[in-house]
Structure formats: C-alpha cells, structure tokens
DNA sequence: CGAGTATGTCATCATCTGAAGACATCGTCT
DNA sequence: AGACGATGTCTTCAGATGATGACATACTCG
C-alpha cells in the first residue's frame, strides 16, 4: 500500500480546506497517482492491454477507486490525455532545440498515450477524438500555421505528414522494434531526425 | 502457401491433386480464408482487439477451426505475418516508383499487421519477433545495405529511422487520425513522402 | 455400398476484465 | 465526544474471450 508518512497533525495545521500533502486519506492524491500510473501504462502497453488492476497496482491505489473517481477506465484515459495535454508546450517539430526537448522528455517519460492513438485505429470515438485533439493542437496546428505563413503549398498535409513521421519514430523508438533506433542517444538521433522532418518543407 | 502438407492429412495431400474449388469441405480453403480475414482484422484493429469470433465471422468459418488448424490465435497471427511476408517484394523506400507501389497497395489492402508491431510495445515476444523480422527484412535491411554501399555514416540508424517514419505515416493514414493525410490521393502524397524519406540520407 | 477419416458445428469451460456494491476506516465539524 | 461524510478495501457480478471436446456431416477409398 502506498504509505506516505502519517502526519495527521499536518492536516490539522493548515487552515484552508485543501488537504495536506501527507494525509493518509487524500482523494486528490489518489486521483493523481492513478492518472500518472495510467499515463505510463497506457503509453507503454496501449489502452486495451492495460487493465484497471495493473493501474491500481502501479499507483498503489485500489482499482475500485478508478470507477469511483473517474467513472470508468475510458474516462481515466481521457483524464490522462488531458494531463498530458496540460503540461505540454506546443512543440515545433522543425526547431532543433524544441525537438531535442521533446526527445529527451520522451526518453524519460515515454511518449504519451495520444501518440499511439494517432497511429492505431480505434473504434472508440471518444478516446480517439481526445487524443487526436491533443496531437493536433500540440504538433500539427503550429506546424501548419508556420507553413501557411511561409506560403508553402498544402500546409496542412505537410504538417500532418511530419507529425505522423515523428510519431512513428518516437513510438518505434520506445517500442524497441528497431535496435539502433531504440538505443541511439538523443544526441545522435537529433540531427538525423531534424533533417528528416525538415524535409516536410519544400527545399528553398 | 495455402497448404504445406501436414502430417495427418494424408487424404488431402495424396496424389498431388488439389481439392476441387467447389468442395464443400476443404481444410486448405478454410485455412486460407482464416488467414486472409485475420490479416485484415489484425491490421485494422490490432492483435488484442481482434477476437477469434470476429475472424471466424469475416472468414465465414467457424472460429473453432482456428484452434484446430493453427493451434491458437497467436499462431494464426504468425501465419498471417508469414503470408504477408511471402507475397511482399522487398521495398526500396527511397525509390519513388516502389514507394508508389507500396502506397497504392496499402490503399487497397491496408498495411499489414507487422506495421503495428513496429510501433506498439508488446510483451508477446513471439508475435513481435515475427513482425519485426518481417519489417527488417523487407524495409530496413535493403535500405541499410544501400546506405552502406553509398558509404553513408550510421547506415543502420538511418534506415531504421526512415522505416519508422514510413510506418508512422502509413499507419496514421489508415487510422484516419489526420484528416488530410488520410484523404490525400497517393499521387499528392507521394512526392512529399518521397522527399521526406529521402532526407534520411544526408544531402549531397 | 459401407467403413473410416477429414472436416465442420455446437455447446461449454476457465479465465480475465471492467464495474458495482457492501462494508470498514478515517477526518472533520459541531 | 459524537455524528456524518469522505475515503479506502474487499468481494462479487456479468460479460467477453480464447480454447476445448463431443458430436454431426461429408468425402474418400476399399
């Protein structure tokens, strides 16, 4: 069981209604742990192959609380995507520094669940809608705007192409399907990937 | 591919005479139908979300025959990948004509199951091994050889990168996650994709 | 024709999974 | 202190799924 120091007095100390961080019973904390575990597992194994029991185990929280706090596994997924969306800065795939940031972050935390949704067919419209929205807002749209500003033809198509290619690379890297790709340091990969994505814009 | 003489099926394999096409009972035909249906469904919905009952329904064959003829759902998957592998020509991602062929083919039949395996983590080593082997043999290795012959640095990494990007684009296209990408004609997409993949080789 | 086997059909099992509910424990407020 | 709601734990349910085996039917061969 998750055991994070007792400190029942800490709870009493704070004047506000907000529960103290060390509380033994803290719904907000449980929700957070669940979302975090869900984000990792969904990204790592996909939606279907992740069970609520696994999520609960990793989070150190009883799986029944998923139903209580989120309603269902799917709504937990949506919550995870929203969190992933929340702490993400809009990325510019063509900017090498931004790209480096993305790569390093994925090395640490893995790509979010939405990347899989971009690439996998899903009959679950809600799930796919949320993930698509996230990707579109974060990756495609900025790129599309940039292309449009540069008066490149077919900006949207080019942006989607680059995003899809990027998703493929990132996912393949974390899936371990390709040996060298998975093991390459971000430093070695970065220039190659940058050149690749830069080619989504016509050569000047 | 359809039948590779099995031990116990002496009657069907005898005399080298293939069963008549109109036969009401034809194990080879049933196997073929199952593999075909499985290939489509696995590619379309992934391994986990495809049920043996669905496969049987689409094939017009009783799902119990999956167990009889292949042993298990997973071995059916392996059989499907082998068939996909069998009728595939090694593709050259940098050659525009070959690329066109691939795109058109995927438009008709969808990418095979192995593309998903490239991008999805799987705890099922057997399944993933088979799919990875297929991709490697068909996409990565030829490209790698080509790069090596051209004395490009890091040929393997570059080849894997290009293959991953290609997988991402093809999967995203068939998943429908990106609107314009999914709807674009192969003709419009081809030059853009070709330029993109060509950038896996350093500019000359 | 008739036996024997290959093939197909059906019912069923064991397991897993998401979800729901009963009950227990904790924290707060009066 | 005591009541009441919030939070957590455990059990259980209903449905789905992969797999299995018994039985039925068709084909081949003597």
TrEMBL record, chains A, B:
Keywords: DNA-binding
Residue span(s) of domain HTH tetR-type: 28-88
Record-linked InterPro entries: Homeodomain-like_sf, HTH-type_TetR-like_transc_reg, HTH_TetR, Tet_transcr_reg_TetR-rel_C_sf, TetR_C_16
Disordered: annotated span: 1-29
Biased composition, class Basic and acidic residues, residue ranges: 1-11
DNA-binding region ranges: 51-70
Compositionally biased region (Low complexity): 12-21
A UniProt-annotated Pfam family: TetR_C_16
Source domain of life: Bacteria
Name this polypeptide is given: HTH tetR-type domain-containing protein
Higher taxonomy: Bacteria, Bacillati, Actinomycetota, Actinomycetes, Kitasatosporales
């Amino acid at each position: 069981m998750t055991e994070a120091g007792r400190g029942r007095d800490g709870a009493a100390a704070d004047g506000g209604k907000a529960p103290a961080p060390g509380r033994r019973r803290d719904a907000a904390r449980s929700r957070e742990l669940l979302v975090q575990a869900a984000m990792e597992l969904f990204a790592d194994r996909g939606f279907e192959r992740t069970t609520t029991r696994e999520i609960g185990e990793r989070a150190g929280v009883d799986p029944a609380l998923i139903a209580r706090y989120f309603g269902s596994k799917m709504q937990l997924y949506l919550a995870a995507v929203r969190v992933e969306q929340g702490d993400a800065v809009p990325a510019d795939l063509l900017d090498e520094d931004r790209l480096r940031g993305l790569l390093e972050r994925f090395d640490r935390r893995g790509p979010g669940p939405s990347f899989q949704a971009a690439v996998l067919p899903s009959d679950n419209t809600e799930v796919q809608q949320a993930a698509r929205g996230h990707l579109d807002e974060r990756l495609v749209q900025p790129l599309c705007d940039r292309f449009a500003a540069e008066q490149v033809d077919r900006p949207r198509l080019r942006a989607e192409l680059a995003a899809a290619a990027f998703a493929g690379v990132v996912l393949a890297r974390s899936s371990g399907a390709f040996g060298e790709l998975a093991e390459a340091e971000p430093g070695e990969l970065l220039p190659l990937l940058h050149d690749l994505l830069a080619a989504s814009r016509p050569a000047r």
